[in-house]
Amino acid sequence: xILKAKHIKIGLDFxxxxxxxxxxxxxxxxxxxxxxxxxxxxxxxxxxQVKKILDEQHIPYTQIFAIFDFYNNQGKAAVYAEGDFKIQxxxxxxxxxxxxxxxxxxxxxxxxRIYKRSFHTPYCVYDSASHSCILDEGxxxxxxxxxxxxxDKIEQFFSL
Length: 160
What we know:
The chain is an alpha/beta fold and 160 residues long. The protein has helices at 22-34, 47-56, 67-73, 89-102, 113-116, 147-157, and strands at residues 9-12, 38-43, 63-66, 78-79, 85-86, 107-110, 123-127, 132-135, 140-142.
């Protein structure tokens, strides 16, 4: 009997992950979507600026979640005249984890160790210098390898 892989939803950080290798993550996202997976861009934001860059770089995605927009819509962001903004650290640091939990994200690929503290979703810490990502379980995704190999490894790891 062949087991079917569960529906996989990838969370990708924008600043520090996609911006570190946009060409790689363009191919990564396109191939993941072609497999029927979802690709959620999970970022600090603002959403409009991130969307503009993703579209200019032709990086496909299913959804964008921006912490700034989420809390700004709730009136919890202080926005200053020069365009800077501030959100309480405790809210900011747990927002990605809460989004991943609510949307049943299979794995989040992110370069920040601070956010990892709040996560129950598998969290892969991306290192832009080595182009690798280490899951909590010690599984290493070598993002020097061809995209198909990386996606196969994710699929194997998260198969039912």
